[in-house]
Design a protein that fits this description.
The chain is an alpha+beta fold. It has 2 domains: 109 residues, no CATH class; 120 residues, no CATH class. It has 10 helices and 15 strands. Strands 1, 5, 10, 11, 12, 13, 14 and 15 form an 8-stranded antiparallel beta sheet that branches. It is globular and about 60 Å long. The two termini are 23 Å apart. The N terminus is likely disordered.
């Protein structure tokens, strides 16, 4: 996807690498590349002109080694790419975990079960100390905690129960946000309350008071200055294509520009070259 070429700006640089994910920490999105030290400050790029070139050049998004698929075969043989991580409610053995070091690091901690609003409401789980970052990484606009659990396995069991009334999957594309997301989240929370009974009731943190329930809803940080309807109709840059345009914003794993979108979730392991103002790129960027 080619767009009109503009005159290069001063103090620009470029960086080459293979995307792993957009991490949201303290409300700011940063793109990490498997073979580059330091992230790209995507929040700083809003309002700036950038150029993105995509080439086929596969590397594992997890370890950064050359591979035919991502994650590579070696990484697929261990967490976090094991089924016990994807579906802990049914696949995690916990006491007999074959990956004890990963369990200590990533599973044997407090978890939360949550609801988020996107183009619909979905349920999910994450570690209790990073739930807002997780919601932002998923591209949500609002979120609320419905349960707290002592580990990943129990969180998965609660999530499986909620799946009877709330989806656990959602779009990974740019979307038009829900109208009245707070109202929709409260309605979904009431449905979840009916599932959080019996052995699951001790994990529920849903207050009985309606006003207190709405007060639990968190607005997720936003870095977007455009129109959602317009962006949803824009083309997505793919392999052997390039895009040069002004950045409108970032949602989840997607960067939106005036001419198209870059969905980093769809480009994991591919070769990216990003040219932008040097101050927003890692120090390893090549000045132009």
């Amino acid at each position: 996807m080619a767009t009109q070429q503009n005159t290069p700006l001063q103090r620009r640089a470029s960086v080459n690498g293979h995307p792993t994910m957009v991490s949201w920490s303290r409300g700011k999105p940063r793109l990490y590349l498997a073979d580059v030290d330091g992230p790209i400050d995507l929040a700083g790029l809003v309002g700036e002109e950038i150029r993105v070139d995509v080439r086929s050049g596969f590397r594992c998004q997890h370890c950064g080694k050359r591979a035919d698929n991502s994650p590579c075969q070696e990484c697929r043989s261990k967490p976090p790419h094991q089924q016990c991580v994807f579906t802990p409610g049914t696949s995690c053995t916990y006491q007999d975990c074959p990956f004890p070091s990963f369990k200590r690091r990533s599973c044997a901690h407090n978890f939360v079960v949550y609801l988020v609003a996107k183009d619909g409401v979905k349920a999910g789980i994450t570690q209790a100390d990073r739930y807002v970052s997780r919601w932002a990484e998923q591209g949500a606009t609002h979120g609320m905690i419905v349960a707290r659990t002592p580990n990943r396995r129990v969180a998965g069991i609660v999530e499986d129960a909620l799946e009877a009334v709330v989806p656990t999957e959602s779009t990974k594309e740019w979307y038009e946000p829900l109208d009245r997301p707070r109202t929709k989240l409260v309605q979904a929370a009431h449905s979840c309350r009916k599932e959080l009974t019996g052995s699951l009731e001790p994990f529920s943190v849903l207050p009985a008071d309606e006003e207190a329930l709405e007060d639990r809803i968190v607005t997720v940080p936003v870095h977007f200055t455009g129109d959602d309807t317009t962006v949803t109709d824009l083309p997505e840059v793919g392999i052997d294509e390039h895009l040069q345009s002004e950045v409108l914003g970032v949602r989840g794993q997607i960067l939106a520009t005036a001419e198209g979108v870059v969905n980093f979730d769809h480009l994991k392991g591919e070769q990216l070259t990003i040219e932008a103002p040097a101050e927003y790129l890692p120090a390893t960027g090549v000045a132009r």
